[in-house]
Every structure is written in structure tokens, then in C-alpha cells.
Amino acid sequence: MPAREKFAFERKITSVHIGFAMFALFLGTLYGPLQALEHAGVNLYFLAPWTQTYYQGLTLHGVLNALIFTTFFICGFLTYVTVNSLDRHTRFPILDIVGVVLMIIGLVMAAIPILLNMATVLYTFYPPLMAHPTFYIGATLFVVGSWVVGYSLFFTLYAWYQEHPNQRAPLPAFMAVITMAMWQIATLGLAIEELALLIPWSLGLISGIDPQLARTLFWYTGHPLVYFWLLPAYLSWYVMVPKLAGGKLFSDPMARLSFVLFLVLSTPVGFHHQITDPGISVGWKLFHGALTLGVAFPSLLTAYNLWASLHIAGRMNGGKGALTWILSLPWGKPELTAQLLAAIIFIFGGIGGVINASYNVNLVVHNTAWVSGHFHLTVGSAVALTFVGIVYWLLPHLTGRALFSRHIALAQAWTWFFGMIIFSRGMHLMGLLGAPRRTELGASIKSAAMTNPDWNVLLLMVGLGGTILFISYILIYVNVIGTIFFGRKLAPNEIPTIPFADAVTHAEQGPMLLSQWKPWLAGAAFLIVVSYGPVLIEMVRTIELTSPGFKPW
Ligand code: HAS
Ligand code: CU
Q1: What is the CATH number of domain 3-271+279-541?
Q2: How far is ligand 1, taken at its centre, from the CA of residue 378, in Å?
Q3: Is 223 a catalytic site residue?
Q4: Which of 120, 143, 291, 382 could form a disulfide with 346 if both were Cys (CB 3.0 to 4.6 A apart)?
Q5: Residue 215 annotated in active site
Q6: Is the CB of 372 under 6 A from ligand 1?
Q7: CA of 365 to the centre of ligand 2 (A)
Q8: Where are the domains of the chain?
Q9: Which residues, 6 or more positions from 213, have their beta carbon under 8 angstroms from its beta carbon?
Q10: 122 lines ligand 1 (CB under 6 A)
């Protein structure tokens, strides 16, 4: 039976996830242009009359885009990739249903207080800012739902191992399950923060909160969260982009090495978000800083492997020259071009990350617009634009309808690329000139007394980039809505299949260690205990539940 019919159940589950993801992106991204134009001195917030403050809009933007869009997309995408690459149904379909239902309940519970301006705590929910308890309970249920989706994948892979003794899992499923395993380990910090601190505090069961401990638990999850976003994009770059480009993956073992290193190194690095926080000694911050440079290594492996794979594709397409083979890649395919442009942007996003992680330089950029520039190149482009590229083949696959317009899709990818380059250059430079993040800067343009006149041209750059991004955003939804309602119905043989690439060097040619689980899980546990254990023990020993909740909006 063709894979599409065989996995009809998983296709439905994935469709629900992707549907919620695209809806969240639709609402969340709407705030981007409003914020960017506010920076340029143009206030259009009257277009979203339910938004009472800038911070409420910023919370909606961050929560819907960075948390809800990504998590729904990742859960749906990884489920579908896993069953198709194992060629096996999910072991316990009930888990897929329970997972998605919990996520939807969590989303609704968290979204209502934000829309009512009762949870304006941004996506990092930094206490002592306090939200309505429904927000924290909803966020917790949402994460638990994503765990259940992960359990479904663990049981499925486990069943596959039992049916295929002594075999190595296919690369796509191996990567999908590593991502979910890393997420389980990573979200323990947030789960403890919610259950032991935020929920009892917001319900009035404990008298106050310890912001230092809460922030530390948040960043235990907050850094690996960025790899939870990134690894599904890497999965696509490794196992799908080479196929879309007409070539092969250069090295399967090297791809596995990159992913197992992410499993080990993603979590024990959270203090690089707390370099300016008091209460953690310099030694521990430096230790996390050094491990952060370590976790950049698997990204360098990815850059090498991806470049080599694209080089193979370029040559197979008849390309010549040291660099001109790049022109022989099929740039007319939006599902590929969006992902290539995302990868190019990530070169700059990644360099910015390494700058952030450098102790003394972080003191210059922390809490400035530079950081917003950094994360729009990473999660806002490397990840989001890759996911949009995936949608360009996945949506026709799921719906059986042709993409509404491939030209519009190409225009979307390029406008995102140029819009983001202009936007993020403005943000980065403004940060170096001391402009704070999370702040209404539009007033700067109107009143010189408030700020630094050198920011003004950069603020206009942010506004211009944001406007181009807004056009790109409209183009995404022209295609999504156009495909669902007006796309040409495809004959069965026209429906795109999942573009899994073959590899030049196969898993079996590399060491078995790279396909195993126990050593890498043990390594992850060891590094977490060493890097977090002593600090957390000290923080809990000296805990002070004294800070009241603040609602300054
Ligand atoms: Fe980051 C802050 C350090 C990666 C997201 N980061 C943030 C925040 C977010 C974020 C959201 O050390 C703000 C949090 C907040 O609200 O406060 N980041 C790093 C480092 C990396 C890094 C070292 N970040 C990411 C990724 C993100 C992300 C990925 C989202 C998906 N980040 C920091 C630090 C801070 C921070 C500090 C705190 C700042 C502060 O003070 O608040 C590294 O993992 C990056 C390694 C990446 C590379 C690039 C490899 C390049 C590749 C592409 C190759 C392309 C090819 C294209 C071959 C070394 C893989 C070829 C194309 C053809 C056409 C041929
Ligand atoms: Cu980080």
C-alpha cells in the first residue's frame, strides 16, 4: 500500500498539529510588523484593538510564535517522519490522540488570560511578574501534551527495535526520537518551576517567590528549547534538503554524531543566559560558557555535512567550479529555496550566538536589541523559514491538493530573506549602540530628549525590514489558504512523497556507538548533574520565598 494511504491515521494527527501551528503563526506573526513599525515611530496598534499594552502584544508574539507554533509543528512533523521512516504505525495511537488533545486544552487555557491582558509576562514568564494561574496551568498541560507525543515515538521506535534486532534505526526516526528525548530531559526545569513555584504562588498557596531560583529553572529549559526548535530543521536539512536538491546526504554517521552530541550538550549550558545575574558564581558561568562553545561544534559538523551534500547535488545537476555549482541547485523549487535561504541566514545567527556566549562580550549585548536581532536570525528564520519550506511540500502531501502558487512561494522565501537581513542588521547595530530590548523605542524618533539620535536610522531600518516581512507573511497565508480551499486536486501519482535522501556514506560504515542510546543518555545525565547540581542545591538550601507578584501593566 502506498505510504500515504497506509498512514492515514498519522496523517490526520499530523494535519491537526500543523493546522494549529499555522493558526498560531498567523496570529503571533501579526504582531511582528506592529512592533517593528512602532520602533519606526508609526503606531498601528489600533488594528488589534484587543491589545491593551505593548507588552501584551509582545507576549502574544513570543508565546504564539516561539512556543505554540514551533511545538505543534515539531510534534506533527516528527510523528509523521518517524512512522514513515520506520515504515511502521505508531505503537499506541491513543498516545497520539491524548498528546494533541492535551496540547489543545493547554493552548486554550494559556491563550485566554493572555488575550485578556492577565498574563503579560512574555514568553520567558519571568517572576516576579505574575500571571493568572490558568496561564501557568495551561502552559504546563501544553508541555505535558508534547511529552505524551514523545512517549508515542519512544514506544514506536522501541517496538521497531524488537522487530529488527541488531539493526540501526533509520536516520530520520533516530533524529526525531533524539529530539524528543532531549526535550524530555530539557523540560524538567520548567516542569519543576511551574509545579513547585509558579502555580502554587499564583494560586496564593505560597506567600512569595524566589526569582533567582525560578529564572535558573527556566533557563535550564530555555536554552535546550532553542535546540528543540533547531533539530527538526536540521533533520530536514540532513535527510530532505539533499533529496530536494537532487543529490545525496554526504555522511550519515557524521549526521548521527551531530545529533548524539546535541543530546549530551544541549542542557548543561543555561547559565549563558544568566551571565549578568547575581547569585551564580563566575566559575559556574564560565563552565557553562565553555560547554556552550562545545554545543556549537555539532552545528559546525552540520554546516560541513550540509555544504558537502549540496556540493554533491550541484555536481550531479551538472554544476562546475569552486562555487558556481551553487547556481546549479534547483532554485526554482520553493520547498528547497526557503530552506537554503534559512541555512544561509543561520550562518550569521550562529556566529552571533558564539559572540553572545563569550563572557565579556555578553556584558555588552545582554538585554539589548542585539539579542532580538540574534533570535530572529535563528528561531525566526533558520527554523521558521525552514518549517515554511517544509509546508510547501507537506501541505500538498497532507491535503492531496497542489500548492496554490509556486511563484508566490518563491517570492515569500526571498522577501523573508531580505526583510530579515534588513530588520536584524538594524536590531544588532542598535544593540551595540545600547538600545534596550523589550522596549517601545518609537518614542526615540519623536523625542530626542529620550534617547540616542544614532538609533534613528536603525529604527527606520527595523521598520522597513518589518514591512517587507509583513508582505512575506501575507504571501505565506495566500498559499496556505489558497491550497486548502482552491488548490487543484492532485491525482494519486502527483501527490508529493516524503523527500527522504539516500546517503553516500551509510550508517553501517560508521561505528555502532553512533546509533546507540545508553552511552549518550548517561553522558547527558552526568553533565547535567555536574553543571547544575551544586548550584541548584545551594539555591534550594538558601531559598527565600519572599517576593510578591507584580502586575505593572
Ligand atoms: Fe542563541 C540568546 C548563544 C543558537 C535562540 N538565543 C538567544 C535567545 C533566543 C535564542 C530565542 O550565549 C534569546 C532568549 C531570551 O529571550 O532572552 N545561541 C547561542 C549559541 C548558539 C545559539 C552559542 N540561539 C541559537 C539557536 C536559536 C537561538 C539555534 C534558536 C533556534 N543565544 C546564545 C546566548 C544567548 C542567546 C549566549 C543569551 C544572550 C543574552 O545575553 O541574553 C549556537 O548553537 C550557534 C551555533 C551555530 C553555528 C552556525 C552553523 C551554520 C549552519 C548553516 C550552514 C549553512 C550552509 C548553507 C552550509 C556555528 C549549520 C549553504 C547554502 C548554500 C546555498 C550553498
Ligand atoms: Cu541559549
Answers
A1: 1.20.210.10
A2: 5
A3: yes
A4: 382
A5: no
A6: no
A7: 14
A8: 3-271+279-541
A9: 197, 539, 540, 543
A10: no
